[in-house]
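Chain and conformation:
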Amino acid sequence: MAGNTFGKLFKVTSFGESHGEAVGCVIDGCPAGMALSESDIQAELDKRKPSEGIASTKRTELDKAKILSGVFEGKTTGAPIAIIVQNEDSRPKDYGSIAKLFRPGHADYTYFKKYGLRDYRGGGRSSGRETIARVAAGAIAKKILAQKGITISGFVSEIGGIEAKNFSEKDVAKVYENQFRVPDKEASKKIEDAVKKSIIAKDSLGGIIEIRASGVPAGLGEPVFEKLDAQIAGALMGIGAVKGVEIGAGFGCAKSTGSKNNDPIRIVKGEVSFMSNNAGGILGGVSSGQEIIVRAAVKPTSSIAQKQKTISENMVNADIEVIGRHDVCIAPRVLPVAECMVAIVLVNALLENLGSKISESK
């Protein structure tokens, strides 16, 4: 199985299955001399863990990260960093009754056609649990970026068609205190009602997440085939539940005009200043120095308890009811994954510009 490694200079290789022994990653290309501990990684992994809210899965995993290599006396050595997280609450028996059936919306059928076999226990590699590796690596990427004054934040802007409209930057900073990661309290209440109705209907909801990268200097990214926005879009589309990505004004550009969509530029107090940010902080595939703004559409959780039509591995029509512990809406848990994937893209772009020596700030 190819396609398990992401990045050019800061390379992340993911391993493990949803109901196997463990999941984890190997990171190659992390600069030497940076302070790093398991608590740095754990802080990000805890954002991805199931919440105690009604929308989240009831699978109770500690998701405790253990660093196996690449760190000596609290600092990175420049060698590959291996991180492992044990699966402690897996229940493969939940899938025994549907082992030969393809779950609609999942990768069961496509994996079977590609490989001739598949891990039916929660989808194996196609499970959202694989994203632990991305978050663990992203935690390190975020720390590298922070040394250069680059920060990444995000929030859920919509669930089930209910949009977050009234919120401040302070609200955004506190989204991880909210089970839906929505910064708008009024919208959050409406979403809670929608989630309750979805649970009763044995259904699920989709959502939209927004990621912002601040402090990104102008000049990052390649101008042709490896544009910064193309790299970001590819990184986010590589997350299993993401089905659409837009940068800046995104699809709104199609309804606009050049005079409105262009971002005017001025010199203000000796500094370059853009008067708007429809480009989302990227022009011609290269960062402009503005805040990078990205949104991603997250599909409704595919595993639902409603009876659905499907087929078996023997290509016979069948009905299926997916019983198990699944999120009603996956968007809140995709948020930290998306933040970390953007961080990994930006670290690669930064290293391409600066080389591989990034010393600890003093």
Q: What stands out?
A: Helices lie at 38-48, 108-115, 131-147, 169-173, 185-200, 228-237, 258-261, 331-354.
